[in-house]
Automatic annotation (TrEMBL):
It comes from Luteibacter yeojuensis. The lineage of its organism: Bacteria, Pseudomonadati, Pseudomonadota, Gammaproteobacteria, Lysobacterales. Residues 24-278 form the EAL domain. This is PAS domain S-box-containing protein. The chain holds residues 700 to 984 of 984 of the full protein. It comes from the Bacteria. Coiled coil: none annotated.
Length: 285
C-alpha cells in the first residue's frame, strides 16, 4: 500500500485529525469552565513513616468530579492542561486550596502535617513556584514548610539554570521538594548531586513486585542507598499489600504511601482517619 497512494486516501486521516482537535478544544473549554466554576477538589493521601506508622505528611491529589458521581482522572486532563497553559491556573488553585486546607488542619490540631502539592513540568518552568508557595504561606499565615512540592525528573531537565535557581529559592524558604515517580523519567545524577532535593519517591512500577522480582528489588535497594548517602529521604509509592510493606520496612525505606496504608480521601474522611488511634497499621510491621 506504500506505492499507489491516492490523495483521496488521506481524507479519512484528516477527518479523524479534525475530530481529535475538536474533541481537544471541547475538553479545554470544559477545563476552563471547571476552573471558573470551582469544580475541582483535592483529596489527600497520607505519607506514613515506615518504622512507626506515624503520618508524616499528606499528598494533595486533584479531583474533578463528573456528573455521574465518578471523577475524571488527573491523568486524563493534566496533559491537555499543560499543552494549553491551563495548568498554570489549575496549579494556582491547587496551592490556594492546599493552603486553605492547612488552615483547617491546624484548627483540627494537625498543623504539624505538611501538604505536598504536585507541580507539573510546564508549571515549574513557566511560573515562579517558590513565589506562588511563598504567597500562599503569607496570605494564609501558614508556618514555613506547611506546603511542600513534588516534581518529576523532567521538571529539572528543561532549563538547567532556571531550575537550579528555583530549587534554591524553594530550599531557602523552607519548602521541601520530593522527586516523584523516581526512576521512570529522564534523570541526571548531576541534579541529584547539585540540587537541594529532600526526598526521592520510588515509582510504583518498582514497588509493585519488589518482594518477588529480584530486579525490582535491586533497583529499590539502589534508590534507597543513593538517597541515604546523599542525605535524602525515600518514599515508596503505590504500596498495596503487606508483602511490599514488609520488604520496604526490612530494607530501610523511610516512608510508605499507598492503598495498603490509606487511600486518597476528602477532607472529612481525612479528619476521621487522623483521629488518634486510627492511623495505626504499619507500626506492627
Ligand atoms: P502521582 O503524583 O505519582 O500520584 C500518585 C498516584 O497514585 C495518584 O493517582 C494516587 O491516587 C495513586 N495511588 C496512590 N496509592 C496507590 C496505590 O496503592 N496503588 C495504585 N495503583 N495507585 C495509587 P491520581 O490521583 O490519579 O494522580 C495521578 C497523577 O496526576 C499524579 O501522580 C500526578 O502526577 C498528577 N496529579 C495529581 N494531582 C495533581 C495536581 O494537583 N497537579 C498536577 N500538576 N498534577 C497532579
Ligand atoms: Mg505525586
Ligand atoms: Mg508518584
Ligand atoms: Mg505517578
Amino acid at each position: 500500500h506504500f506505492h499507489g497512494e491516492a490523495p483521496g486516501l488521506l481524507r479519512p486521516f484528516d477527518a479523524s485529525m479534525a475530530e481529535r482537535s475538536i474533541e481537544r478544544l471541547r475538553m479545554a473549554s470544559r477545563i476552563r469552565q471547571a476552573i471558573e466554576q470551582n469544580e475541582f477538589m483535592l483529596h489527600f493521601q497520607p505519607v506514613v513513616e515506615t518504622a512507626t506508622g506515624r503520618v508524616e505528611k499528606l499528598e494533595a491529589l486533584l479531583r474533578w468530579p463528573s456528573s455521574d458521581g465518578t471523577c475524571i482522572s488527573p491523568e486524563d486532563f493534566i496533559p491537555l492542561s499543560e499543552e494549553t497553559g491551563l495548568i498554570i491556573d489549575i496549579g494556582r488553585w491547587v496551592f490556594e486550596e492546599a493552603a486553605r486546607t492547612h488552615v483547617a488542619l491546624t484548627r483540627a490540631g494537625h498543623g504539624d502535617l505538611s501538604i505536598a502539592v504536585n507541580v507539573s513540568a510546564v508549571q515549574f518552568q513557566r511560573t515562579d513556584v517558590a513565589a506562588v508557595v511563598g504567597d500562599a504561606i503569607e496570605r494564609f499565615e501558614l508556618r514555613p514548610g506547611a506546603l511542600a512540592i513534588e516534581l518529576t525528573e523532567s521538571s529539572l531537565m528543561a532549563n538547567r539554570r532556571s531550575a537550579t535557581a528555583a530549587m534554591r529559592r524553594l530550599s531557602a524558604q523552607g519548602t521541601h521538594v520530593s522527586l516523584d515517580d523516581f526512576g521512570t523519567g529522564f534523570s541526571s545524577m548531576a541534579y541529584l548531586r547539585d540540587l537541594p532535593i529532600d526526598a526521592l519517591k520510588i515509582d510504583r512500577v518498582f514497588v509493585s513486585d519488589v518482594y518477588a522480582n529480584e530486579r525490582s528489588a535491586s533497583i529499590c535497594r539502589a534508590i534507597i542507598t543513593l538517597a541515604h548517602t546523599l542525605g535524602m529521604a525515600v518514599v515508596a509509592e503505590g504500596v498495596e499489600n503487606a508483602a511490599q510493606l514488609d520488604w520496604l520496612a526490612a530494607t530501610g525505606c523511610d516512608f510508605v504511601q499507598g492503598y495498603q496504608l490509606a487511600r486518597p480521601m476528602d477532607f472529612d474522611r481525612l479528619l476521621t482517619f487522623l483521629r488518634p488511634g486510627e492511623a495505626a497499621g504499619v507500626a506492627a510491621h
